[in-house]
Specification:
Largest sheet of chain B: 6 strands, mixed
Helix content of chain A: under 10%
Strand content of chain B: over 45%
Number of strands of chain A: 11
Distance between the termini of chain B: 41 Å
Shape of chain A: globular
Low-confidence stretches of chain A: none
Largest interface: A-B, 26 and 22 residues
Mean pLDDT of chain A: 94
Oligomer: heterodimer
Structural class of chain A: mainly beta
Mean pLDDT of chain B: 95
Number of strands of chain B: 11
Largest sheet of chain A: 7 strands, mixed
Structural class of chain B: mainly beta
Radius of gyration of chain A: 13 Å
Amino acid sequence: DAGITQSPRHKVTETGTPVTLRCHQTENHRYMYWYRQDPGHGLRLIHYSYGVKDTDKGEVSDGYSVSRSKTEDFLLTLESATSSQTSVYFCAISDGGRGTEAFFGQGTRLTVV
Amino acid sequence: GENVEQHPSTLSVQEGDSAVIKCTYSDSASNYFPWYKQELGKRPQLIIDIRSNVGEKKDQRIAVTLNKTAKHFSLHITETQPEDSAVYFCAASNQGGKLIFGQGTELSVKP
């Protein structure tokens, strides 16, 4: 498996609190992605990064922010969690070159109560 | 931006039959089209991919076809087995690296 780790794996939080999910990679891949997975919606892109401090919005970016201060780490922050953000969050990495396969982390199950 | 539509959302086949899943994409600049399999409770994993300069690719029982003019691509699984039961996702990506997925197809292979 590619060296990609998400933390925490499970989290329960209260509405209105800030939450940060971490994605850590040891592959030195250029691209990193955050997706959320909900029944009937597949994998929806929240934000992605194409380099250190270079990020862009995905399909469902409202209510989320990201930061990438170093190659290895991509942080996803829910500024003020809402129940609609209850989901499974997946991080993925890709080198973006000829080997463009994206490798996924184990996922983080977030419940907002 | 890119939009990927995937059909059907559920597919049930008898063991040994073939299964076909279809996707369409909107961004003509997309040049990479992977397919992922996700088993229950696990992470998605790549099963096959195709680039825009190729029309078809095979890997044992799995094949993918691409029609760039029509902007659609398909996954074909032959001689299906119960272990093929999973959710399958198509995706599209352009040179900028943005990777957009379809909604997924839940494939059930009945023994």
